[in-house]
Design brief:
By secondary structure, the protein is an alpha+beta fold. 26% of the residues lie in helices and 19% in strands. It starts with a strand and ends in an 11-residue tail after the last helix.
Length: 526
């Protein structure tokens, strides 16, 4: 092959590391002896840079039959391996670490007192996600040795990511714009600004970054907060820390974070009479307490559902005594606005119990099959209202307890909530309060985000194109090569303008919420 020669001697392509900050010229010599001298100019995309080293316990999932093609695509491009999702967190001092740099090269991390930290933090990193593991560009979960804040000292409070040990790096490979998750979180913030005293207590935040993983630049990622109970995140009374919050034996005084996800793969979980799964996101450390917590949460949640399905004034009244309606409305409005179908499986739909009430949220997972390019401008079109097309909303998948097996149409409890006038009245009130500010906000927010991403996206798309002609996964349902948003083959600029157009169409198309003239069923052909 080709060798490289400069004043430091011979450098073998793809084998020898070069400090281009020191060597500003490189001479390339081909096999015929012809020499071409190149000036080296270092540039960046303007995004912060996350640097992760994970050498301890790293294994390749190339041979995992379920993900082999996508894993091979990653490995071929990057040459790097990883700890699998179900692997143990492993960190070795001086070997495994995490660091974030601002675009100017300065440290972007701080300790829990917000004092700037200049040295990498001991960490462990492994794969995350379910379907996303089948994608060539991998997403990661990071666990730090100590609570660390990110972007807390850049004089822009909108960037602040307060100290915590747990972080997520989302690949967003399925989303041509790489902005749908960030946009959904931003919309949730807009609702919180409009309603600071109620609704969902907290939703994640993040920033787009470049990721260098085990010495290899692997593209544009979204660094964001993982959904966790914590004073800096979902600040509810968690029962899982025996040191700081001792178990009293009374499960009713604590707060619980749960997820409705048909993967049904947590240690502590249950389903309701209508087969809606509720999975505990944390395991208790106190012996015997988990079963008490599980029994309490199960009785609490099932009791709410039983009352809703009575379909009587008294039943709704009893349910609303324990169900926070404002959070249910805001959560649904964001899903509807983004045309997210996660509620129908359900997947990635979070709940929390706090102070004797069940709340919906935080929001999560909007990178696939959201704001598609068709069926988004019909005035009466309602994405989640397609639940009304199906008389029975029950649903079962393998791994659930024995139950009737039907297609995806659970939609959580919304089939019953939309029959209730109090829900419709509150939805109209909160939507009318928010929607006026959303028009300009949507265009400004998306275009500003896109401008920050332009340079990074150009590099990322060469590394990880959503190739609609390539089947990454062999014979399975993801033959489209990435997503179902309809913009996969577009340029970044066109995908962004389409995203703005689609979201504005959705804002206008949700007039039925404002006027309370809800359709009896969906007009969607999907």
């Amino acid at each position: 092959g080709i060798s490289m020669v400069n004043e430091a001697g011979e450098i073998i392509s793809s084998e020898t590391e070069v400090d281009f900050a020191t060597y500003k010229q490189v001479a390339l010599t081909n096999e015929d002896g012809a020499v071409v001298v190149y000036d080296v100019e270092l540039t960046n995309t303007g995004l912060p840079v996350v640097v992760i080293n994970q050498e301890t316990g790293v294994t390749s999932t190339e041979t995992n039959s379920e993900y082999s093609k996508a894993s091979a695509a990653w490995y071929k491009l990057t040459g790097t391996k990883w700890i699998p999702k179900d692997g143990d967190w492993q960190m070795t001092e001086g070997v495994d670490n995490f660091m974030v740099y601002n675009a100017d090269g300065t440290s972007a991390i701080s300790d829990k007192k917000n004092a700037k930290v200049d040295a990498p933090i001991l960490s462990s990193t492994r794969l995350r996600g379910n379907v996303t593991q089948q994608m060539p560009k991998k997403s990661f979960a990071v666990k730090l040795d100590k609570k660390t804040g990110i972007f807390m000292n850049d004089n822009d409070p909108n960037n602040d990511l307060p100290a915590h040990k747990r972080w997520v790096l989302l690949a967003n490979w399925k989303d041509r714009t790489m902005m749908r998750n960030a946009l959904a979180f931003s919309l949730a913030d807009a609702f919180k600004r409009a309603f600071p005293n109620d609704g969902m207590a907290w939703n994640p935040s993040g920033q787009h970054v470049e990721l260098v993983y085990n010495g290899v630049h692997v593209g544009t990622y979204y660094l964001c907060e993982q959904i966790k109970i914590d004073e800096n995140r979902l600040a509810i009374n968690e029962p899982f820390d025996e040191k700081d919050n001792p178990w009293t034996g009374d499960p009713s005084i604590y707060g619980y974070l749960m997820e409705s996800d048909d993967g049904y793969d947590e240690n502590w979980q249950f389903t309701t009479a209508n087969y809606i799964p509720f999975l505990f996101k944390d395991d208790a450390e106190v012996e015997g307490s988990s079963s008490q917590m599980l029994q309490y949460a199960q009785n609490f949640v099932r009791g709410i559902e039983d009352n809703l399905y009575k379909n009587t004034a008294a039943g709704y009244e009893a349910a609303f005594e324990k169900l926070d309606l404002t959070s249910l409305v805001d959560f649904w409005l964001i899903q509807e606005l983004m045309m997210n179908s996660e509620t129908k499986h359900p997947k990635s739909c979070y709940w929390y119990i706090n102070e004797g009430k069940l709340y919906a949220g935080p929001v999560w997972d909007f990178d696939w099959n959201t704001l598609p390019t068709s069926d988004n401008s019909e005035e009466d079109y309602s994405y989640t209202m397609s639940m009304l097309d199906k008389a029975s909303p029950v649903h079962k998948r393998s791994g659930y307890p024995t139950a009737p097996s039907t297609s995806d149409k659970t939609y959580l409890w919304y089939p019953m909530l939309v029959k209730n006038q109090a829900f419709k009245d509150l939805a109209a009130e909160r939507w009318n309060t928010v929607k006026g500010a959303l028009g300009n906000y949507v265009s400004t927010e998306i275009n500003a985000m896109a401008k920050k991403l332009e340079a990074s996206e150009a590099v990322n798309n060469k590394m990880w194109p959503i190739d609609t002609n390539r089947n990454w996964f062999g014979q399975n349902s993801y033959g489209m090569g990435g997503g179902k948003c309809g913009d996969e083959s577009m340029t970044f600029s066109n995908a962004v303008s389409t995203l703005v157009s689609n979201l504005n169409s959705r804002i206008n198309g949700m007039n039925y919420v404002s006027t309370k003239t809800w359709p009896s069923k969906s007009f969607s052909t999907k």
